[in-house]
Design brief:
dioxygenase; dioxygenase activity; binds fe (ii) ion; binds 2-oxoglutaric acid; AlkB-like_sf; eight-stranded mixed beta sheet; Jelly Rolls; Alpha-ketoglutarate-dependent dioxygenase AlkB; single chain
């Protein structure tokens, strides 16, 4: 039980709302989760197809869900494994904060600064219109960039820290793109969990 109120930063932008909670998990707990997921998740390097060309994804991923619904993006279909006890605990912590139920978590392991996640929106049709996406980060801080599709001045960054929670809602996936760019800095690993709802 955390007796300190969690500090929330709310970014209200045209067609989007983001909420960032830096200390969602305290450092010690976040480090335990990092080590646990590093060892126990079924990490895979899948191939994606973009504009007819096939590439190795520049990070490792895994999919877990409370149902058997697959998740498809960039020409790739992932079949989920069933949630583990640790993933269920985090899902329940996040659900209490967001007041929304999730079915699925996509995990990303960025092995170093060369791993990345290119400009995209989480707008697959199985997520429904205007999905709520909750993203938990463990390990190395990485910069999360987001830009509006039509308003060029609307371009922002948030450093996603160890133990943080970022919530994306509203029309964000329709009007904005986001990415985790590569960095030339020599940095360690980062694990990210993005909770989604696929019914
Ligand atoms: O690693 C992150 O913080 C973002 C992950 C992401 O955008 C995704 O998996 O769709
Ligand atoms: Fe995303």
């Amino acid at each position: 039980m955390n007796l300190f109120p969690k500090e929330k930063t709310i970014f209200k932008r045209p067609n989007a709302e983001l909420i960032y909670i830096e200390n969602f998990y305290e450092t010690g707990i976040a480090s335990q989760y990092f080590n646990h997921f590093k060892q126990n998740i079924n990490w895979q390097q899948d191939h994606i197809t973009v504009f007819g060309k096939t590439y190795k994804q520049p990070r490792l991923t895994a999919l877990y869900a409370t149902n058997d619904k697959p998740y498809s993006y960039s020409g790739l279909t992932m079949q989920p494994l069933y949630f583990t006890k640790e993933l269920l605990q985090i899902k329940s912590d996040v659900e209490q904060e967001v007041m929304h139920q999730f079915t699925t978590v996509l995990l990303n392991l960025y092995r170093n600064g060369n791993d990345s996640n290119g400009w995209h929106a989480d707008n697959e049709k199985e997520l429904g219109k205007h999905p709520i996406i909750a993203s938990v980060s463990f390990g190395e801080t990485r910069s999360f960039h987001f830009k509006h599709r039509h308003i060029t001045e609307e371009r922002h960054k948030i450093n996603l820290k160890h133990g943080s929670l970022l919530i994306m809602k509203g029309e964000m996936q329709e009007y904005w793109l986001h990415q985790i760019p590569k960095t030339k800095k020599v940095i360690g690993e980062r694990i990210n969990l993005t909770f989604r709802t696929i019914l």
